[in-house]
Each structure stands twice: as structure tokens, then as C-alpha cells.
Design goal:
The protein has 93 residues and is an alpha/beta fold. It has four helices and three strands. It is globular, with a radius of gyration of 15 Å.
């Protein structure tokens, strides 16, 4: 596993921005932490984008926003403050 991460970092030296889809699930938060580690090695910034949880494509087409935009903004702000010690430019779109 460590070798894969090292190879990824070596191949990402020119990466400027890493976009991470976040639905606040455990998997998406793990992806965020992975992106932060890659960003540290490549000096990239990390941008989070909120995505809705869906079970299949048709539910996506019919999906209505279920989360309050203010709650999402607060949760992103909390993530940014909790990862400030990582030394990576983290923001959301």
C-alpha cells in the first residue's frame, strides 16, 4: 500500500488542484484524507464539492436536495478547521 501512495505522489508533481466529492460518508472522508496526503507531496490545493448520496443513477436524476445548504457550509468549514494543521490549502466549491 505504501508503494502505491509513493508512486502516486511521484506522478502527481504537476497537479495543482485535487477535487474531492464529499457526501460526508466515511468513504468520502477517507478520500479527503488521501487527497490531503497527495496534496502535501505535490504542493497541490484540495477543493471539496458536495455530492448527494444516491443508490442508483435514476435516483440521481430524480433527486431533490435533502441537505440544508447552510448545514453543508458549516460542515465544510468544520472540516477545514479540523485539517488546518495538515498545512494544505483546503476549500470547497
Amino acid at each position: 500500500m505504501i508503494k502505491k501512495t509513493s508512486i502516486l505522489c511521484e506522478n502527481s508533481k504537476n497537479m495543482q488542484t485535487i477535487l474531492v466529492p464529499i457526501d460526508f460518508s466515511e468513504d468520502s472522508l477517507n478520500a479527503l484524507h488521501m487527497a490531503i496526503n497527495v496534496a502535501k507531496a505535490s504542493q497541490a490545493e484540495v477543493k471539496m464539492i458536495h455530492v448527494n448520496k444516491t443508490r442508483m443513477f435514476l435516483s440521481f436524476v430524480r433527486a431533490k436536495p435533502t441537505e440544508n445548504p447552510e448545514d453543508i457550509k458549516r460542515d465544510f468549514t468544520d472540516l477545514i478547521s479540523h485539517t488546518a494543521h495538515e498545512g494544505v490549502n483546503l476549500d470547497y466549491v
